[in-house]
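Translate sequence into structure tokens.
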Amino acid sequence: MSDLSQRSPAAADSDRVWLGGLALLLLALMVGSLGFGPFPVRWSELMGLVLDGPSPAAVTPIATVVWQIRLPRILGAVLAGAALAAAGAAYQGMFRNPLVSPDILGVSTGAGLGAVLGIFLALPVSGIQALAFIGGLSTVALVYALAVMVRGHDPLLVLVLAGVVVGTLAGSAISLLKILADPYNQLPAITFWLLGSLATLNLTDLKNLLPAVAIGLAPLYLLRWRMNLLSLDDEEARALGVATGKLRVIFIIAATLMTAAVVSVSGVIGWVGLIMPHIARLLVGPNFVRLLPASMLLGASFLLLVDNLARSLSTLEIPLGILTALLGAPFFLWLLARGQRSWR
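Result follows.
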């Protein structure tokens, strides 16, 4: 059995270099994104705004665009990308499967059903987000309850199968609501929301999103070294004194909470939680202690880059789900072609 916690000093230094480089890349993207978009902002103007800060006295069109529109969107992309990537890394470690993503237990579909129901009922934005959040958590709770009732089988396999079944039912309910929705007002809103977007994100949404992501991330970070033990067979992990069942429940709750919170404010954004942990694993290895921060930095940078493209490639806002699929699917095919050597 290989010891994931032991690495040579040279490898550890290389990991620190990668993490430092990813952090600098994210910072550069955040600063550059402030001046990037259809409304042109020169670097001299941007630097002046950054040095002055969001002063209430300086109410200009440029200041409004940078501080009230772009900054919340940038912070939202960073927070959402980091949360989805962290959830993806956690799910892949728990299920010992590199093909697992944050929506494997139906959280994204359940949150989508809640949001679609809110749009169908003509609820305000806060009500739609609340229903999406509740829908995501309720779906995973139902999946876990079904898995508990099924005895005598591999619990991980039962969880995945239950997630597929419940996710399919939620998807069918979404399709039914789309058929019943007003084709001129509700249906376009439902379709756009299901494809994911940060176009309407504001500071209030960030204040609602941050606590949920922080609560979900805390156990993943504090217990990150134990995630390595879940890559072993349950018998081996229990022999080392680890209660795998309880630990897996904690990680599932934490990852689901983050995913549901993100989907509730941004819609369904795929591929981030599936692809970014793979790239992080190629860079820093499978040790979750290093994999978690690397995945978060990569996820934040990737979603921020995609969001910049979404608001700049066309005069119309391009849904994030389309761009993440266009970028993520070819990379995933490349991973399959190379035989997933990095996971093994």
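Note: The chain has 14 helices and no strands.
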